[in-house]
Design brief:
2 copies of one chain form a homodimer.
Chain A: E1 8-16, E2 22-27, E3 36-37, E4 40-42, H1 49-61, E5 69-74, E6 85-93, E7 105-111, H2 123-136
Parallel strand pairs in A: 1-6
Antiparallel strand pairs in A: 1-4, 2-3, 2-7, 5-6
Chain lengths: 137, 137
């Protein structure tokens, strides 16, 4: 491709259930190995960011997203210790579904007290923005 | 970087003035050489998408953006004939400013009848979404 180097493109999903719980994974690999994080991952060439978000959510948690709403774009060069990544974050809401961990996720679970957890990367910031969007829409 | 290949990351700016005109450039290089387009370009590694948007706007039109509002993320793999690029588009409003073309722009001008123009890439779609956001906010 004739393009200059640009930040790596990723996506994260904030999924709330009807009780206000958030779907989190435990990371299988570094950075933040074992820590809580939002489901997500890198966007493939040839794939839209929405498709990547649905794919990563399915691979890591077994959960199928309905409508996706754009939360924001997170591109602080320091947000990932491995290098500069930009994440496009989406909000989804599901009624009832049992998560099943897979791929890069060691575990996948509905978390009620997510406000108390230390989350990987800037996922606490993404979650705060998602909560604001969920209340407004 | 240990990252897999991902789409190239770009940004575009929709700038409206107080009369509802849109700031457009004429492209100096292919694709759509000579055609109208939104100011924008690739995000550098180490730069946020907001900073890239302001930088490209300044380089191509000499205009400084105030507050940026996120319009959307455009990642259709076919949107750029050169390869897969994902654009993060922002809305800005300026009161009065005289554009001055530079960098990849052969010209930069305020355009009143932009709805009639054939724009490069998916910029007509981005402009429609920007107009909806501008009316709502």
């Amino acid at each position: 491709m004739p393009f200059p180097p640009t930040p790596a493109l990723a996506t994260d999903a904030v999924v709330f259930d009807a009780q206000g719980r958030v779907l989190l994974i435990r990371r299988k690999y570094p950075p933040s190995q074992g820590g809580y994080a939002l489901p997500g991952g890198f966007v493939d060439v040839g794939e839209t960011v929405e498709a990547a978000c649905r794919r990563e959510l399915m691979e890591e948690t077994g959960i199928e997203a309905g409508r996706l709403e754009l939360i924001g774009v997170y591109s602080d060069p320091q947000r990932d210790p491995r290098g500069h990544t930009c994440s496009v974050a989406f909000l989804a809401r599901v009624a009832n579904a049992e998560p099943k961990a897979g791929d890069d996720a060691a575990a996948a679970e509905w978390v009620e007290d997510w406000r108390r957890l230390a989350l990987a990367f800037d996922h606490a910031l993404i979650l705060r923005d998602a909560e604001r969007l969920a209340r407004a829409s």
